[in-house]
Amino acid sequence: MPGPSSIPAKRPAAPDAAEAAWVADEDRFVLQQARKKAAIRVKSGRAAPIDWLVVTLALTDPDRDSLDDDLEGKEFEAADPEGVFEGLSEKDLSELEKAIEGYVVLEKGRREAEYWDMMRTICRDRRKHSQSVQTSARGVTSVKADLDKLLGPKDLEGLEKLERQIKTKLSSNEPIDTDYWEHLLSSLLVCKARAKLRKVSQSIKALRIGGLRRKQVAEADALKVRLQARAQSAVMANGDDHISGQDQDSTDRHDLDPEPLLRLRPEDEQLAILTPAEFAKQFETDRETIKRHGLLPNHKRSSTSTALEPASKRQRTDDPATSAATQPTTFDRELARGLADNEEILTSGVEVVTKSLPRWLPTSRPRKPQSFNRLLLGYDWNKYNQTHYTTDAPPPKVVQGYRFNIFYPDLPPGAPTPTYRIEREDGRRRGEVRAEAGEEDMCTIRFVGGEPYLDVAWRIVDREWDFSAKRERGFRSSFDKGVLQVWFLFKRVYYRK
């Protein structure tokens, strides 16, 4: 059984004046609630096409008050309302026309009634075009092209003038082709509705641009005040407000110099390969679509505190004291390699106590090293899985290894090399199995870097490592250029018949 319709409906006529007034009040309440629900659905990202048309009308109303609370604080995308109809199926267009009819019946204002009448005209034309795409003959297509060529270049005033001329000709007693002129009139009304909607779109863009400009001016003024305050505090702290040209040039070069892309990201590998001609054609198509719809994207900015900092200081690190000499390069290159199909990022660590912390606490500020760790997954084709699963219906993936990359760029000269160790709870020894059937024993791998870095640790599956020198097994334990790498896979278990 279908659910209740969201299309506002008018009540039947009342027999007396008192009840008629009550029904009119009820219709106004229904219309107001329908508008508010449309605005809420748009704000929550679940809008239907009719909701965008309702919000578009509200944004162009200079005296609107019913939707102010729902539209306030939300930056909508302002687009040509006609673009709402693009991409809709015949069923969607039918439902949209029914929803528009509901607003046509309920709206009483001249401006609102004219708006919804335009929408209904365009929706009906879209439905007619959708129904005739597969059945239209070559002659009909040619006539439509001729009419579009005739009516397309005319503005709203020219269309209204031509409409008066056609109506005069149809009402006269002259011997004319009535079918042609009536068809021309119906096509003209559609073009007229589109021309009016273009004016609606222009008014929306004007309002949005004006609002964005006012907001940008306010943000610029606030930023100017903060920069002046920061410059004054820097002068007081350093005793000199002069920035050397060399430092400024270095900062500018860092801002504009991108990091090298060593490997395609996994999502980029799935993109279609286009020839230059195909790419140029697609680019032009997308550009024309945007120009036709007049899109104004949402105004999104990064936080002010981040925007005020130079790019050299905006690193992916929780510690602002970390050096920018080695860490950003090695860390970003590791990130650039992306993830393979059998890899996942290992993020959740465990809190451990750094035992050597009291000895060097007075001389250094402790901080956690940055890390980028991977979890290697795969299928374990043991005897049970070979019996109960196939390659088309594989068993659940299991952990087959780890790849730890811990970054220590600020170790002092002559400091001991960072290392790692395995810690097991409750006196359990290596190779001892205490987990229940179907579960894995777990242990903690701790990384010790020394001053000024705290110890970090992660929980991992406790199975025997494969230390073989085979290239495909990939065991690695090394410290080079401030990066400790510990890569390992678990030994494979083979079952003999």
TrEMBL record:
Stretch list, region Disordered: 236-266, 291-331
Domain Splicing factor Cactin C-terminal: 362-497
Biased composition (Basic residues): 292-302
Top-level division of the source organism's lineage: Eukaryota
Start-end of Basic and acidic residues biased regions: 239-266
Splicing factor cactin central domain location: 16-200
Classification via InterPro entries: Cactin_C, Cactin_central
Gene Ontology CC annotation, any one: cytoplasm
One GO-annotated biological process of the protein: mRNA cis splicing, via spliceosome
Family statement: Belongs to the CACTIN family.
Protein name: Splicing factor Cactin
Organism: Cryoendolithus antarcticus
